[in-house]
Amino acid sequence: MYYTYFWQLKEYRLDRMRDFLRTKSGLRKIFSFLTLAKLFILLEVVLCFALPNTNNSILFQLLEISIGLILVGEFLSILWRIAKRKLYRPVITAKVLIIVFLTIVIDVLLGNMMYRLIRWESIWELNLAETVWLLPVILIFSYLILPIVNALVVGLLYPITQFSKGRKLAAAHRKIAKMQGLKVIGITGSYGKSSVKEFLAQMLETKFRVLKTPGNTNTEIGVAEVVLRNLKPEHEVFIVEAGAYKIGEIKKIAEMVKPRIGIITAVKDAHLGLFGSLENIKKAKFELIEALPEFGVGIFNNDNVGSADLAGKAEVQKIIRYGSGAGADLRAENLKADIDGVSFEVQGVKFRAELAGRQNISNILGAMAAAMEMGMKLEELVNIVAGLKMRDHTLTVKKVSTDLVLIDDTYNANPDGVVAGLEYLNLYSGWQKIVVFPGMLELGEKSEEEHARVATKMTEVCDLVILTSHDFDKAIRNVFEEKNYQNFTYYVDNQTGQADFLKEKIAAKKSVLLFISRGNEMVIKKLSQ
């Protein structure tokens, strides 16, 4: 269950798991100190058989003691994870149950094979009367090979799951094809796509029967399952968020849902470690536009260089550029942001939204561009924009008291998003500003550069930085040393200690805390009480 949790978290993808194992925390989670201790025990076993006359030697006594310590250590480790709420378990699905069952069966069979091999006296010349430690050794062998067996099972199931996925994609494609009046809007981008999706849905729901992909569902199989389960004949608009980790994945989603409108929110180096280059990211995002019909509409964020570049390549009937700079077709002016929200003007019409962060103006504009293309007027969007709500865990502001504000930005962590969160944090003039930061994954060769950029912003804004991982702290600490910034500390895998520490820090003064990326749910809950 433990190892299957991480495979499920990484969508059973070898490329994402490989990237995860390149981090210090990933390696620690899969190959712990106890793993090394088990390897040491196997080395002891080899020595016991390799050295002559060792049946009653000190090595056998050490082996017995080591096995006992390991089993006690495993038990205490489980108790510790339960106490710290770190007992990782996957969401139970049929696939998870099959993976767990097959892992157990194969692991037991391999352990049994080793047991039979050791008992083969003609090879090992083993006196079984003195082998009370034999079964624990087999158990430890089984522990050691468990993550390998688990990975092999995931690999063995890959052809079956691909076949099943293909059938679902085909069924979803047929269902979409039958709904002739359905208007599909596709949204992709390195960041901002979920927010644009949420805002657009809230706008269109005032005039149309709308279905959107829920939460962070943006893979081809995820979208297909939404189509098969949730898409009804009465739906008039289907808003699809499309994500990708390699070239070709957005193309498959677009071929399935056949969008008429495509929105690209931004093209940056998110998931660079998986794509390999920014050019590959551009190609992947542009697949949405390439899938549009000739009479389709491409909508691009003109303030983002990557998105603006793709607008120049689009071969569709209509191109709409949105932003606050020159060249935007839908242009925002007089942009303002404060702790209570953002305001701006479009073609003389004033808008105000109670949303955290200036970056949301861009997200609102992207949604407005699509809504207007669907027939809505600029003026009728004023009241809708005023009532827009953020999706949970995306710069969600919770005012616990007059002296404490928690900002939950744990949905994701990309460099521009982190900087946007820090800029919003900086609006709290006169408050103690604290950020809790675990680092950013899947940035590839840009990782050090982007962590350095974020760290520089932290030194300008934050009174205290709490780092919850050692994965990327080299680049961060280099910046802190260069800036002579000493207001930081570590709380790695210790949410209880972190919560207690923060309670002491916020007791004396008005404080605002920004939580970035996953892993701080318990801390937020404790501080909210």
Question: In the residues, how many domains can be counted?
Answer: 3
Strand order of the largest sheet: 2-3-1-4-5-6-7
Percent in strands: 5-15%
Overall pLDDT, averaged? 87
CATH class of the largest domain: Alpha Beta
Q: Helix fraction? A: 40-55%
CATH architecture of the largest domain: 3-Layer(aba) Sandwich
The computed structural class is alpha/beta
Silhouette: globular
Q: Characterize the largest beta sheet: strand count, sense, and whether it forms a barrel.
A: 7 strands, parallel
Instruction: Output the CATH homologous superfamily of the largest domain.
Output: Mur-like, catalytic domain
C-alpha-based Rg, rounded: 27 Å
Q: How far do the termini sit from each other?
A: 31 Å
Q: Which residues form runs of ≥5 with pLDDT under 50?
A: none
Number of helices: 21
CATH topology call of the largest domain: UDP-N-acetylmuramoyl-L-alanine:D-glutamate ligase
Itemize the secondary structure elements and their pairings:
Elements: H1 2-9, H2 14-21, H3 24-30, H4 33-50, H5 58-83, H6 94-118, H7 121-124, H8 134-178, E1 183-188, H9 193-204, E2 210-212, H10 220-230, E3 237-241, H11 249-257, E4 261-264, H12 272-275, H13 278-290, E5 297-301, H14 305-311, E6 318-323, E7 330-331, E8 333-338, E9 341-346, E10 349-353, H15 359-373, H16 381-386, E11 396-401, E12 404-409, H17 415-425, E13 432-437, H18 447-461, E14 464-467, H19 473-482, E15 488-490, H20 495-506, E16 511-516, H21 521-528
Parallel strand pairs: 1-3, 1-4, 2-3, 4-5, 5-6, 6-7, 12-16, 13-14, 13-16, 14-15
Antiparallel strand pairs: 8-9, 9-10, 11-12
